[in-house]
Amino acid sequence: MAFENAIITKEDDEKYGLSKLFYQFNPVYKTLPDGKSWVVDRNADCWLMETKFFQDPEYDHAYLKKSVWTLYYKGEIIEITLDYENNISDTEKFHRIWKLLELKPKETKSLSKNQILMLLNKILNVYGYDGAWGQIENFTMELQDLVDGREK
């Protein structure tokens, strides 16, 4: 699979009903915000998009790092709740630890949980620091499965 960070096009939105999906999580938006990005492999019919943001209770108009992402794989939808923390080492490496908090469903007709985790790990590696909006040098990441307490 060849994933890429991309800006969602009108054609993408219409094909997958992305505005409708985004609206389910964010009723303030009738359509996708301009410039909404995702990680997509159009040939493999697979994508990942951040779809729900959690309000930060300590700050007005701020969001937590924790969010819900939607993984689409050949007609199947999986909701993934992720949080993350960043570690910057003395060698100036930027390391992100993605924390898988929830997976709905945990498996599908065509993907086992382990396959979902491997796919998610691959996609998040492509997503990198900030998807289509920006990358940084010396970026590394890992995915921790806190649903079952395993690390990928």
Summarize the structure.
By secondary structure, the chain is of the alpha+beta class.
Structural features, described:
The structure is a single chain. The chain has 152 residues and is α+β, with helices and mostly antiparallel strands. It is built from three helices and eight strands, in the order βααβββββαββ. The chain has an eight-stranded mixed sheet, sandwiched between helices. It has helices at residues 10-16, 18-25, 113-127, and strands at residues 4-7, 37-41, 46-55, 63-73, 76-88, 94-104, 139-145, 150-151.
Set out the fold topology.
Layout: E1 4-7, H1 10-16, H2 18-25, E2 37-41, E3 46-55, E4 63-73, E5 76-88, E6 94-104, H3 113-127, E7 139-145, E8 150-151
Parallel strand pairs: 6-7
Antiparallel strand pairs: 1-2, 2-3, 3-4, 4-5, 5-6, 7-8
**Number of E-state strands:** 8
The shape, in one word, is globular
The largest pleated sheet is described as: 8 strands, mixed
Fraction of residues in helix: 10-25%
Q: How many DSSP helices?
A: 3
Overall residue-averaged pLDDT value = 90
Q: Taking strands numbered 1, 2, ... along the chain, how are they ordered across the largest sheet?
A: 1-2-3-4-5-6-7-8
Q: Which structural category do the helix and sheet elements fall into?
A: alpha+beta
Low-pLDDT parts are none
Helix and strand element order: EHHEEEEEHEE
Gyration radius (Cα, Å) is: 15 Å
Query: N- to C-terminal separation?
Result: 19 Å
- Oligomer class: single chain
Task: Quote the beta fraction.
Answer: 35-45%
